[in-house]
Amino acid sequence: MNIELPPLVALLLFPGGLFLLSAGTVYEWADRKLVARFQNRIGPRWFQPVADVVKLLAKEEIVPDGVNPVLFHGLPVVALVGTLTAALYVPMAGIAPSYSFTGDLIVTLYLLSLMTLSMGLAGANTLDRFSLIGATRALTQLFSYEAPFLMALLGPAIAAGSWQISQVDAYAQGHWWLVLTQPVGFLVALVGLMGKLELPPFDSPEAETEIVAGPMTEYSGRGWALFRIGRDVELLVGLTLMAAFYLGGLANPIEFMLKTGGLLLVTAALQSLFCRLRIDQTVGMWWRIGILLALAQLFLLVFMR
Amino acid sequence: MDTQQEPRKTFVVPIGPQHPALKEPGHFEITVDGEIVTAATVRLGYVHRGIEKGVEQRNWAQAMYMLERICGICSHVHATAYALGVEALAGVQAPPRAQAIRVLVAELERVHSHLLWLGVAAHEGGFDTLFMYSWRDREMIMDVLEGLTGNRVNYSCNVLGGVKFDVDDTQADAIRRAVDFLEPRTHHYLKVVTTDETLIGRTRNVGKMTFLEAETLGTVGPTARASGVPRDIRVDSPYAAYPDFPVKTITATAGDLEAKFVVRIQELFESYRVIREILDKLPAGDLAVRVKPRVPPGETVSRVEAPRGELFYFLKSAGGPNPDRVKVRTPSLCNWGSVLATAPGHKLADVPMLIAGIDPCFSCNDRLVTVRRRSTAETWTWAKLRQYGIEYYR
Question: Which residues of chain A are within 8 Å of residue B350 when distances are taken between CB atoms?
């Protein structure tokens, strides 16, 4: 579906701005509810993520001693801005991307990485020992999943012969679902997305039973709220990207809802199935298995063309 | 080249006194080099409640209610240890039916405690699904215990010389139903902890303790049995109705966290078997015999097997209406050494699981702690301590 929107609307209302924020919280709720049901719990009510954010925004933000205040306040904003901007290049809600240029796939992926990078820096910025360890783990994890994730998303791009998200989406709509032809890439990308979002079992950067909240330990009010919204939006963008690339593209809002919802169901099931991986196990898994699988598929694609 | 090495600055990660991994206050200082633990120390004593001293102010019957509140999870074994000790001092013996009911409640309590531990240990490893499932199943036992005793936590089953309540057929059926429900579930959990790849990755060869180490560190209970030390008071010196309803000592040889999971889960099967056996062969007779309010002078040691290991009671009577001295040593205190000895060399991520591995009960093991600050050390009387407490909270 292709709709021309005035730039201001695209940035502030749809698909950027308000729509992203509200849809992000809805997806967070769906994720939490699904995991809760898998774990035999009741789960939160539908407005819980919104209520959390409103409460956090209203709270006093305590700036701890020994931090650089500019970074402390700035990093959450950078993280949120990065993910919000990334959303403009993906076929959000099944509508063609608002902005598109050759190679925007790479830009989008780097914008999505800003989130983890900001979290790592935010953790390293404080003197808190839990934050420092969490920051180290977050950045270590970033370096382990990033390359396989990127390669897994390059698979469809190579098949489509373009590094432009809208063209890959169009290619996917016109062909077999790529999850059938490139199952390995789909798997690596899905698990990579979970690592990116630090969802269980890849939540060792913020393992609460070890290091409290990891890099986020010292964040209390606004900053923490912004990081949370940022992650919600990243979840939404990541799912959209995955659905557009591997699940036959996103032609209209209904397809968007069904496909991203289905992906969310799979990630929620994966979240409740496993025990948390230690950071060395995470890194080992990615560099011993993930990268090899992604590379094998990449070579196969290059030679098959 | 500079051959002299700079002394490395140590990076200490504090776990506790307030920390999401700890359900009770305790303080661990974990020295790490990157992610690797190089040293670990523990400081206890945040929840000292003065129970031993408090007991001396109460008469023999009242003391039991206080001692029962030492632990919220294994309250019944505390009361049993005390009751058995007082009965030995008084020279009476509870009737067989009472002893059987004591063992029945003790085994039900062990089931609920081990299922609780399974959940907590899984949660420390980030496996919340297992946590939620095992706690859901544990509710069955909680309901049974509530139906039996009227309470979910402090069962208050014992009196000096016997027990308070009888087990009728409806209750026996309810217990059988719960056990029938739990047995297949427990088989499933055993399968999960021995086959789930991610869980094995966190438990196998983690916190390995050899037979010799377990012996030297003086570990008790499932912690010792996981290393192959056959130490179980129910078998070594059977008390209450255990001579009539013998249990088998469950041991494993690996000594790692996985072995601790396996030992505790297999003990559940043993508990189910004993529970069924007691319900089938409950001896007839009275529920209690009379114990005089004044206990003849003397000393005794009473040992029982709590879910966490050997629970030790020393009782001294001066012939009066009150106990002269009651000393309690809970199993958690014996097992701390094993955590501190095994932690170095492991990853920081393993530490919460290592701590949880011994099923620690902080509030139970805190006894008198004397802090000596050079010359200002002084011994307070009970009256002064009480006054201090009143002033402090005014």
Answer: 278
pLDDT at A37 over 60: yes
Token pair 């939160």 is found at A44
**Nearest residue of B to residue A275 by CA position?**
B127
Q: Do B201 and A207 touch (CB under 8 A)?
A: no
Q: What is the pLDDT of residue B275?
A: 93
User: Is A165 inside a domain boundary?
Assistant: yes
Task: Return the DSSP state at B368.
Answer: -
Sign of the Cα torsion B215, B217, B218, B219 reads negative
| pLDDT tens-digit series, residues A151-182 | 888 888 888 888 888 888 888 887 778 777 78
- Count of the separate structural domains present in chain A: 1
What are the tokens at B44?
A: 């206890």
CB atoms within 10 A of CB A76: 24
CB contact under 8 A, B201 and A38: no
Work out the average pLDDT over A85-98: 81
Distance CA B252, CA B226 (A): 5
Residue A2 falls inside a structural domain: no
Where do the domains of chain B lie, and which CATH numbers do they carry? Answer: 49-331 (1.10.645.10)
Q: Verify whether the Cβ–Cβ distance B201 to A209 is below 8 Å.
A: no
ipTM value: 0.84
A and B: number of Cβ contacts within 8 A: 81
What local confidence, expressed as pLDDT, does residue A169 receive? Answer: 83
Structure tokens at A105: 């796939």
Q: Which residue of A has its CA nearest to B200?
A: A275
Nearest CA to A121 out of A188, A72, A57 is that of A72
Tokens of B252: 């494993």
> Does residue A111 sit at the B interface (CB-CB below 8 Å)?
no
Q: Is the dihedral of CA B244, B245, B248, B249 positive or negative?
A: negative
Contacts of A278 in chain B (CB under 8 A): 201-202, 347, 349-350
pLDDT at B373: 63
Reply yes or no on whether the pLDDT at B263 is more than 90: yes
Of B123, B132, B202, the CB nearest to A40: B132
pLDDT at B2: 43
Residue A3 has pLDDT above 70, yes or no: no
The residue segments making up the domain with residue A157 are: 7-304
The span from the CA of A245 to the CA of B310, in Å, is 60
B58 to chain A nearest CA, in Å? 40
Contact A282, A144 (CB under 8 A): yes
Q: Does any domain span residue A32?
A: yes
Q: How far does the CA of residue B261 sit from the closest CA of chain A (Å)?
A: 15
Find the CB nearest B349 among A38, A204, A212: A204
What's the pTM value of the predicted model, to 2 decimals? Answer: 0.86
**pLDDT at res. A67:** 87
Distance from CA of B225 to the nearest CA of A (A): 25
Taking only the tens place, the pLDDT of each residue in B338-375 is: 888 888 888 888 888 888 888 888 888 877 656 666 66
Measure B122 CA to nearest chain A CA, in Å. Answer: 8
Residue A1 binned pLDDT confidence (cut-offs 50, 70, 90): low
Nearest to B123 among A201, A209, A280 (CB): A209
A129 to chain B, any CB pair closer than 8 A? The answer is yes
